[in-house]
Amino acid sequence: MVKIGNISLGEFPLLLAPMEDVSDPPFRAVCKQYGADLMYTEFISSEGLIRHAAKSMQKLDIYDYERPIGIQIFGGEEDAMVESARIVEQAQPDLIDINYGCPVNKVVCKMAGAGILQDIPKMVRLTEQVVKATSLPVTVKTRLGWDDNSKNIVEVAERLQDIGIQALSIHGRTRKQMYKGEADWTLIAEVKNNPRMRIPIFGNGDINSPQKALEYKNRYGVDGIMIGRAAIGSPWIFRQVRAFLDNGSIIPEPALEERIDVVKKHLSKSIEWKGRVLGVLEMRQHYANYLRGLPNIKPYRTKLVTTNDEEELFAILDDILREYAGIEI
């Protein structure tokens, strides 16, 4: 049984990775429907939280049906991170996660996200202050290191455990790699197999099929797997992976009717949470992923990303179902 603090996650949990502009409540709702065991919010700026910026505060929205759920924060200043942890605690998540893995320049240049991998002592100090500031379990998501010359995740994991984090998720790339090349799970396995480690270790990177999930579970011995990009447009991957892990069952891609139902739910939740205008606009990034594999879908996709009317969008989705019913995807 994998536990983070008092949170029981089952024998081999499947986690939804926190993804900026993706892992919002509407997307999390459909991932939870298909069996994600633990989910995280999009990462939230500590500076935004202490300024009570509207966008940052909205990201604190969590719902009981999502539990267990973690709120993820990032920042490079101890005072701001401590204060933001206290603000997060008031939202009553099940845990607080610190992002030390985001590789984008606008985050890294502030020595936040993966930027802090250049200064491990500061990373440890900052984490310790957050742990002391909250009664919630604190977890960390990070990368193997800053570059090929600083893959120090085994030492980093020990130091973070020693100051009180209760789980660690590791993306199998360096910051310099961004999302290129193949994720290297051998160092993740070293962390997991280190006799000093007592906390759960979750692996992240390149898990895009049930077969790969089982292979990596067996080969690297991690306590659970975190799935990110492979869930975009395919939230049912959690159901597929779980079935394959449990009994070798291969669950095919859902029929088009089910797929369209998921798109409708995602769209409805998006409008409900963000309002009509923003809910419609921000859903546009998802249609291509949900509808991939359908032949000659471009005209419908164009309609979906140019239509602003909610009722018309649902009508277009119904048209797609009528047009393609019976087609294997």
Describe it for me?
This protein is an alpha/beta fold. The chain has two domains: 3-247, Alpha-Beta Barrel (TIM Barrel), CATH 3.20.20.70; 256-324, Non-ribosomal Peptide Synthetase Peptidyl Carrier Protein, Chain A. It is built from 14 helices and eleven strands. It has helices at 25-33, 46-50, 54-58, 78-90, 105-108, 120-133, 153-162, 186-193, 210-220, 237-247, 256-274, 276-290, 298-306, 310-324; strands at 3-4, 7-8, 14-16, 38-40, 44-45, 69-74, 95-100, 138-143, 168-171, 201-204, 224-227. It has an eight-stranded parallel β-barrel with strand order 3-4-6-7-8-9-10-11, surrounded by six helices. The chain has a two-stranded antiparallel ribbon with strand order 1-2. Strand 6, helix 4 and strand 7 (95-100) form a beta-alpha-beta unit. The chain is globular, with a radius of gyration of 20 Å. The two termini are 37 Å apart. The model has no long low-confidence stretch (mean pLDDT 95).
Task: Give me some keywords for this one.
single chain; 329 residues; alpha/beta; TIM Barrel; Non-ribosomal Peptide Synthetase Peptidyl Carrier Protein, Chain A; 2 domains; 8-stranded parallel barrel; two-stranded antiparallel sheet; 14 helices; 11 strands; 13% strand; globular
